[in-house]
Every structure is written in structure tokens, then in C-alpha cells.
Design a protein that fits this description.
Length: about 170
């Protein structure tokens, strides 16, 4: 029997409870889940690639044990379909929060199918309590002193708040 490998790509800057919801549900569909952490410097990430990979590994270890699957976390900076081929994924997992996500993702599926028809894309809807969560908004709320405890794990929240404090301190020195 062939091992079912799925790929869940994203920047995870930072990983949120919405991401974790999708990862937990994706783990039920595959034998091995690869979390692809995109480098994407154009987005001006709050965390380095290494920090994001470490946070995702920390947050997904419990999910892997609970689901009885293997989860690996790997950085990538190539075309998504090339990375999917490299890791042997038969399925790309994408999370949807709103209709606007679907419009973008629909376009991407069409392009990806032109590149490799052997890799399917599966959409998972974020749970209702996670549909508004976006990493960009979590960072904005934290930067303005808001409470992000409903949007991230305590571990990630601590990392975000530490980074915000570092930025405030650095800005105060200028």
C-alpha cells in the first residue's frame, strides 16, 4: 500500500490556532504530512525562517503523536509544485477562511494542475471559531498591545510578544 503524503504550505508567520486546526484535520487524511514553510521574504516576516520552522515543529509534535502520523516541517523557496514533487506529496492541503480565499485558491489550483495533474489539491474549511484568524492580523493586534491569546498557543504568543518588545526597544534606541 502506498503511503499517502500531504503537503500543507504556508509562511506561518506566526503559526496560529487556525493553522493548527487545519493541520489536525489534515493529519486524519494522510499517513505523512509535510508542513512546507515558505521563505517569502517579500512579505517582510516577523520571524526568521529558522524561528518559524522551530515554532511549527514545536506546535505540531503533539498533533503527530495524537493522530499517529508522521509530520515533518521543511523550509522551501521553490515553486510549490516542484516542492510537492520533491517531498513525494500526492495531495496539497489548503485552508480556506472566506470566499476571498477561495477565489485566489481556485486560480492557483488551475495553474498547479497545468504543472502537474498528478497532485490533487484538497481544501479544508477553517473551523468557525478560527475563520477570522490571519497571521497578519495577529501581528497587528500584538503590535498595538492587544490580546492574541485566542488566536495562538501560549508558546507562540510568548514568542510574538517577545519579538514585539524587541522591536519596541530597538525603535526606542533610534
Amino acid at each position: 500500500m502506498t503511503k499517502r503524503t500531504g503537503l500543507y504550505p504556508g509562511t506561518f508567520d506566526p503559526i496560529t490556532n487556525g493553522h493548527l486546526d487545519i493541520i489536525e484535520r489534515a493529519a486524519k487524511l494522510v499517513d505523512h504530512l509535510v508542513i512546507g514553510v515558505a521563505i517569502n521574504e517579500a512579505k517582510g516576516p516577523l520571524f526568521t525562517l529558522e524561528e518559524r520552522v522551530e515554532m511549527v515543529r514545536h506546535e505540531t509534535a503533539r498533533i503527530a503523536r495524537k493522530a499517529g502520523v508522521t509530520i515533518s516541517v521543511e523550509p522551501f523557496d521553490v515553486l510549490l509544485m516542484h516542492f510537492a514533487e520533491k517531498v513525494g506529496a500526492q495531495t496539497i492541503i489548503r485552508g480556506l477562511r472566506a470566499v476571498s480565499d477561495f477565489e485566489y485558491e481556485f486560480q492557483m489550483v488551475g495553474m498547479n494542475m497545468q504543472l502537474n495533474r498528478g497532485i490533487e489539491t484538497v481544501f479544508l474549511m477553517a473551523g468557525a471559531e478560527h475563520q477570522a484568524i490571519a497571521s497578519r492580523l495577529v501581528k497587528e493586534i500584538a503590535s498595538l498591545g492587544g490580546d492574541i491569546s485566542h488566536f495562538t498557543s501560549p508558546y507562540v504568543m510568548k514568542k510574538v510578544l517577545q519579538r514585539m518588545e524587541q522591536r519596541r526597544t530597538a525603535a526606542g534606541r533610534k
